[in-house]
Amino acid sequence: DAVMTQSPLSLPVTLGQPASISCRSSQSLVSSDGNTYLNWFQQRPGQSPRRLIYEVSNRDSGVPDRFSGSGSGTDFTLKISRVEAEDVGVYYCMQGTHSPPWTFGQGTRVDIK
Amino acid sequence: EVQLVESGGDLVQPGGSLRLSCAASGFTFSRSWMSWVRQAPGKGLEWVANINQAGSEKYYVDSVRGRFTISRDNAKNSLYLQMNSLRVDDTAVYYCAKGRGLDNWGQGTLVTVSS
Fold first, then answer.
1. What count of other Cβ atoms lies within 10 Å of the Cβ of residue B110?
2. C or N: which end of chain B has fewer Cβ atoms within 10 Å?
3. For chain B, which residues score pLDDT lower than 50?
4. Looking at residue B79, what is its pLDDT?
């Protein structure tokens, strides 16, 4: 199974400042079809998860452009250019290349300093 | 607008059974893979199972294989998860999600396994 490791696990940020979350896979996530199936999800307190980014860097509809995804192979990053209060929550990466199973990172908790 | 509404969660004793349902609307259900993902209290997300459009391909996480069965009824736009031989560590909120990429999620239904 592909093991997904996120860091940091807790990220206190100042409003208006940038934030960055790392996600590393135990195996390259480049699929035999050439795509890289790495997604990012946001879970606000008390809410269901919501997908933000699919296939490394594609923002889902309605996701603010302050969110961006990057990376390749085994190393990936979710960046928030300027953190807003509504960004508080837990962020998860998930791989679908080496599936089944589809596997998630442990989650990174973002809160305001 | 995509809507996924789970139901069926309950308190059940260890060894018991439960059937979860997910009612889908706002998209062509019969053309979409569908998934179940769970979240134990205070814990992270765990993919549980998914099923292809026709119901002919089904995949499970190792910890539930042989105990849980995913199924669908395309005529009713509904997804199901039959859970047998439930264990205390199956306690979680169970989410229905659209696609293998989990592009839309329901609100979840709580399953509590306890004596």
1. 14
2. N
3. none
4. 98
Confidence (pLDDT) at A13: 97
Nearest Cα neighbor of B61 from B31, B92, B30 is B92
For CA atoms A16, A53, A35, B70, the dihedral sign is: positive
What Å distances lie between residue B85 and A8, B19, B64, B115, CA to CA? 37, 12, 10, 13
For A63-75, the DSSP string reads: --TTEEEEEETTE
Element housing A81 (H / E) = none
With a pLDDT cut of 70, the percent of chain B lying above it is 100
Q: Which of B44, B36, B41, B98 is nearest to B64 (CA)?
A: B36
For residue A102, what is the DSSP state? P
pLDDT band at A30 (very low <50, low <70, confident <90, very high): very high
Residue A49 has its nearest CB partner, among B45, B59, B62, at B45
| pLDDT for residue A91 | 98
Give the residue from B27, B31, B100, B57 showing the smallest Cα distance to A55: B100
pLDDT at B90: 98
pLDDT at B63: 98
CB-CB neighbors (< 8 A) of B107 in chain A: 48
To the nearest 5 percent, what fractions of chain A are helix, strand and coil? 5, 50, 50
Neighbours of A22 (CB within 10 A): 16
Strands B18-25 and B11-12: what pairing?
unpaired
User: How many CB atoms are closer than 10 A to CB B57?
Assistant: 10
* CB-based contact B103 A92, cutoff 8 Å: no
